[in-house]
Design a protein that fits this description.
This protein has 170 residues and is α+β, with helices and mostly antiparallel strands. The chain has a single domain, classed as Alpha-Beta Plaits (2-Layer Sandwich), CATH 3.30.70. Helices cover 29% and strands 28% of the residues. It has a 5-stranded antiparallel sheet, covered by helices on one side. α3 packs antiparallel against α5. It starts with 10 loop residues before the first helix and ends with a strand.
Length: 170
């Protein structure tokens, strides 16, 4: 038997995405103020030596790995609400996807910075952007070696909104 939130009223305060009956819902944000919001997410993919050098030398047969991954990250951020059911569709004011190739550790570091002027944050958009970019790298390079490892992926910082600024512990 499923427990409903009205059977356990304390759930209403713990889970913003549940209504009074325990059903999933999109959070109502119409009463929130429009503020500048920004989120930064980071992730990495362990490439291995052969892929690292192919990306560095731009010799991957499928083409421009970082160029394709950048566009994939931006598209993933823009389409977050299509992948994450309870996310609000947002009008992003900016999205940047940045890369740092670490040739010594055979890894690619990815950062996604997303901004908006709105009533809800862009943390999920930044996380989806990083994930989309990492998956595109995997897709572009899997013919060389399928043993790439994606992760960790995390929120690095966010600003704006009622909860204010936050930074991950380093």
């Amino acid at each position: 038997m499923t427990t409903k939130a009205n059977d356990r009223p304390e759930f209403e305060h713990l889970f913003s995405h549940l209504d009074a009956t325990g059903a999933a819902r999109m959070v109502e944000v119409s009463g929130k103020s429009v503020t500048s919001r920004r989120a930064v997410a980071v992730g990495e993919i362990i490439l291995g030596p052969a892929i690292t050098e192919a990306v560095y030398n731009q010799t991957v047969k499928k083409g421009d790995v970082l160029g394709v991954a950048r566009v994939a990250g931006i598209m993933a951020a823009k389409n977050t609400s299509a992948a994450i059911p309870l996310c609000h569709p947002l009008s992003l004011t900016g999205c940047q996807v940045n890369f740092k190739l670490d040739r010594e550790k055979f890894r690619l570091l990815v950062e996604c910075v997303v901004t908006t002027e709105g009533q809800t944050g862009v943390e999920m958009e930044a996380l989806c952007g990083v994930t989309g970019a990492l998956l595109a790298v995997y897709d572009m390079c899997k013919a060389i070696d399928k043993g790439m490892i994606i992760g960790p992926i995390s929120l690095a910082e966010k600003s704006g909104g009622k909860s204010g600024d936050w930074k991950a512990a380093t």
